[in-house]
Design a protein that fits this description.
By secondary structure, the protein is an alpha+beta fold. The chain is built from five helices and 14 strands. A hairpin with a 2-residue loop joins strand 3 and strand 4. The longest helix has 19 residues. The radius of gyration is 19 Å and the shape is globular.
Length: about 240
């Protein structure tokens, strides 16, 4: 059988391509696929224990069987950061500069008297090293679906309206990389929804950050192994 293999961030570096087709035996499991890839790509082998694997956009375990024609994605730990449906607040990825005021306006309403706005920006140093720029990449279809699911879960849990917009592409120090807005009738719910949105975004959404240092060196910031998707249906 044949599958479409997608690799992101350090996984793409290790296998030498972001996308390729592979021939596998029928009934192959994710565990067998990992073993096959580790043999073919020695640089990938030490990375696999830290990676998640998604089959057709859903993170699965090693025991999952891969079907013929499946899309399989290798998802390294994420950095620790299409238009949404009309009924959903602003939840998306963006290749253009973020407008914090517009994101905040997406959650505003007369019944929501408390609003919390979080803006994450690119720092000019990491671990004492000057940073020239960052590059954000994503497994876009899965990331946008997971963002919508995350916003829906937070809205149900906290009774808050939530908007999340994350940048992709190359950003200079000082540019906004993520904007999260949460609005609720009372401040406790707005604060809680905003904080949980950021923490879960870092752990659950397949977006990767590559740091380009002033001395010319580059490094993937892969820190949080991706968690399995939640149980709430994706809108």
């Amino acid at each position: 059988m044949r599958i479409r293999l997608l690799a992101f961030a350090s996984a793409a570096d290790a296998v030498g391509a972001g996308e390729q087709e592979l021939e596998l035996p029928a009934g192959c499991t994710v565990a067998t696929l990992k073993a096959t890839l580790a043999t073919r790509h020695t640089a990938l082998a030490p990375l696999l224990p830290r990676m998640a694997v998604a089959v057709d956009g859903e993170v699965v375990g090693d025991e999952a069987v891969v079907a013929d024609g499946a899309e399989v994605a290798l998802l390294p730990p994420v950095s620790g950061g299409n238009a949404p449906p009309p009924e959903r607040a602003d939840v998306r990825l963006s290749e253009t500069p973020l407008d914090a005021a517009a994101v905040a306006a997406a959650v505003a309403g007369p019944g929501r008297g408390a609003q919390v706005l979080f803006v994450g920006t690119v720092r000019d140093r990491h671990a004492g090293r000057p940073v020239a720029r960052l590059t954000y990449t994503a497994y876009r279809s899965m990331a946008e679906r997971r963002l919508r699911q995350l916003a829906a879960e937070l809205e149900q849990k906290h009774g808050a309206r939530v908007a999340i917009v994350h940048r992709l592409g190359t950003l200079a120090p000082g540019e906004a990389s993520v904007v999260i807005a949460a609005a609720a009738p009372h401040r406790e719910a707005a604060y809680a929804a905003s904080r949980e949105a950021l923490e879960r975004l870092k752990r659950e959404v397949p977006v990767w950050k590559r740091e380009h240092y002033a001395d010319g060196a580059v490094s993937w910031r892969e820190e949080e192994p991706l968690l399995l998707a939640g149980t709430m249906p994706i809108p």
